[in-house]
Amino acid sequence: MVGSGSAGGDLRTPQFNGANYDFWSEKMETILIAYDLWDAMEIGVQLQLIIEEEAGSEGEEGETKQIPVEAPTISREDKNKNAKALSLIQGALTDELFPRIRNEKTAKGAWEILRREFRGDKKVRAVKLQAIRADFEYLRMNDVESLDDYLARFFEIVNNLKSLGEDVTEKRIVQKLLMSLSRRYKSIMSIIEETRDLDTIRVEEILASVKVYDKREDLHDEKG
């Protein structure tokens, strides 16, 4: 995390080094929305006409009409929002990535540059999704792998699927988790399958049961 100044005080933004763009962009979007800066990313800096009031003709006292007196300009509010949003994006990038947007003067422009480079187009994302689907399908826990390490690997793939638009349901995660744990967890998996409704049980419930079982097995191994 890196510090970045804002009207809200000491705001900290997630650092982006080129990896996991989807996660980074989601976190940044939440921050920008929270500080009322997201419209600078969606619609960019908006032009605004300078308006001058002109007195009406004789016999129409009190009436005025508004006419533009200059070419379109940028409102001060939009300027400030753009500057704050751009500052947050710049501050979130590593020194290696900053040159990508160094010459960009708008937050929307900087955001689009990063999105095009690191998110990729539909064809690229489709290829990535196909590869990650295969990783998920063949995912299995190794016998020598710790539970924490496997769960980290498991949910990294799940999150990658979700970030690419895959609809990964709770039921699908539950089924895959029970099928992919190593033989060490065979007894607890059997108990869960026999005593719980796999259509309604939540992932958190399975994780809690498996972790308790894992600790008991560790204690048993130590005593043995």
Automatic annotation (TrEMBL):
It holds the Pfam family Retrotran_gag_2. Residues 56-76 are annotated as: Disordered. This is Uncharacterized protein LOC110761055.
